[in-house]
C-alpha cells in the first residue's frame, strides 16, 4: 500500500478518538449502577501498566500524533474506571480511591518519561532493542489484560458488569488504528499485532455474551418460577390448617349451643335434683296422700 499521510492521519484520528474515550461509557455505567461486579479490576490495572511501554514505543517511533496521544488518554480513563472498582466492589473510601488514582497516574507518567529517555539513549548508540522491547511488552500487556475479564465471565457464567458499548467502541478503535498503519510508509508489525489481538479477544467477549447471557436469563427465569411456586405452596398450607381449625371450632360451638338449649328446656327443680333424688323410691305428693288415707283413725 503506497504511503498516504492524509489517510494515515484521518484513520489514526478516528481510532484515537474511539480508543481514547471508549472507557467513558463504562465509567458512566459503573457510576449510575454504583456496581462494578463482573468488571475485572485486574483488566484495568494491566491496561494502565501496558499503556506505559506502549506510549513510550509510539513516541520513540514517532508514529502519527493521534496514536501518540491515545495511550495517554486511555490510561487516564482506565485509572478512573479502576478506582470505581475499588470503590464499588471493594468498599474503599472515596478519599482513598482518589489518592490511589492520583498516585497511580503519577507513577505511570514518571515511568513513561524514564523509559522514553532510556530508549532514546539506546537509539543514539545505534541500538533499537529497548524500543522494540517497549513495543512488544506494551502490546502483550494490552492484549493479556483481557484475560482476567474472561475469568470473570467464567465465574459468573455470563458477561456481567462490562459495558457492551465500551467493547464496541474499543473494537472499532482497534480496526481504525490498524487501518491507519496500512497507509504508513513502513508497516509497523508490533503495533498491528497489538490492535489485532485486542479486536480478536473483544469479539470473543461478544461471542460469550451471545451464548451465555440468554442461558443465564433463562436460568434466572426458571428460578423465579420455582420460588413463586414454593411461596404459593407455603401460603396454602397455613390456609388449610386454618380452615380445619375453624371447622372444629364451629362444631364445638354448635355442641355448646345444643347443651345450652337443652338446659333451658329442663325444669328448674329437675336441674337441681341429684340422681338419688330422681330414683323411683322417692315419694311423690300422691303417695303421701294415700298413706294418710290408709292410716286408721
UniProtKB/TrEMBL annotation:
Transmembrane segments: 39-59, 65-86, 98-118, 133-151, 163-183, 189-212
Biased composition (Low complexity): 236-248
Cellular component annotations (GO), alphabetically ordered: membrane
Keywords noted in UniProt: Membrane, Transmembrane, Transmembrane helix
Basic and acidic residues: compositionally biased ranges: 269-279, 287-297
Record carries keyword Membrane: yes
Entry's localization field: Membrane
Keyword Transmembrane helix on entry: yes
UniProt membrane topology term: Multi-pass membrane protein
SMART domains per the UniProt record, alphabetical: CTNS
Pfam families (UniProt xref): PQ-loop (PF04193)
Residues covered by region (Disordered): 223-297
Biased composition annotated in UniProt, kind: Polar residues: 223-235, 257-266
Name of the featured protein: Uncharacterized protein
Amino acid at each position: 500500500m503506497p504511503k498516504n499521510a492524509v489517510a494515515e492521519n484521518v484513520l489514526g484520528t478516528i481510532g484515537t478518538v474511539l480508543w481514547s474515550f471508549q472507557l467513558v461509557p463504562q465509567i458512566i455505567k459503573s457510576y449510575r449502577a454504583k456496581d462494578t461486579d463482573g468488571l475485572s479490576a485486574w483488566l484495568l490495572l494491566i491496561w494502565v501498566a501496558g499503556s506505559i511501554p506502549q506510549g513510550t514505543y509510539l513516541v520513540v517511533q514517532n508514529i502519527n500524533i493521534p496514536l501518540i496521544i491515545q495511550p495517554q488518554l486511555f490510561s487516564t480513563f482506565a485509572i478512573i474506571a479502576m478506582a470505581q472498582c475499588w470503590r464499588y466492589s471493594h468498599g474503599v473510601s472515596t478519599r482513598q480511591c482518589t489518592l490511589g488514582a492520583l498516585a497511580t497516574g503519577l507513577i505511570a507518567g514518571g515511568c513513561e518519561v524514564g523509559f522514553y529517555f532510556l530508549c532514546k539513549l539506546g537509539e543514539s548508540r545505534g541500538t533499537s532493542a529497548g524500543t522494540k522491547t517497549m513495543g512488544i511488552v506494551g502490546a502483550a500487556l494490552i492484549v493479556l489484560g483481557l484475560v482476567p475479564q474472561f475469568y470473570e465471565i467464567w465465574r459468573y457464567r455470563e458477561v456481567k458488569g462490562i459495558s457492551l458499548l465500551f467493547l464496541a467502541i474499543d473494537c472499532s478503535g482497534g480496526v481504525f488504528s490498524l487501518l491507519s498503519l496500512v497507509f504508513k510508509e513502513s508497516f509497523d508489525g508490533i503495533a498491528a499485532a497489538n490492535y489485532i489481538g485486542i479486536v480478536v479477544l473483544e469479539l470473543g467477549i461478544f461471542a460469550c455474551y451471545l451464548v451465555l447471557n440468554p442461558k443465564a436469563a433463562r436460568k434466572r427465569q426458571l428460578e423465579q418460577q420455582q420460588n413463586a411456586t414454593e411461596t404459593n405452596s407455603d401460603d396454602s398450607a397455613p390456609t388449610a390448617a386454618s380452615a380445619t381449625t375453624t371447622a372444629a371450632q364451629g362444631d364445638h360451638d354448635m355442641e355448646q349451643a345444643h347443651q345450652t338449649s337443652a338446659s333451658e328446656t329442663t325444669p328448674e327443680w329437675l336441674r337441681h335434683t341429684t340422681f338419688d333424688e330422681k330414683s323411683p323410691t322417692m315419694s311423690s305428693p300422691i303417695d303421701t296422700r294415700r298413706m294418710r288415707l290408709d292410716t286408721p283413725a
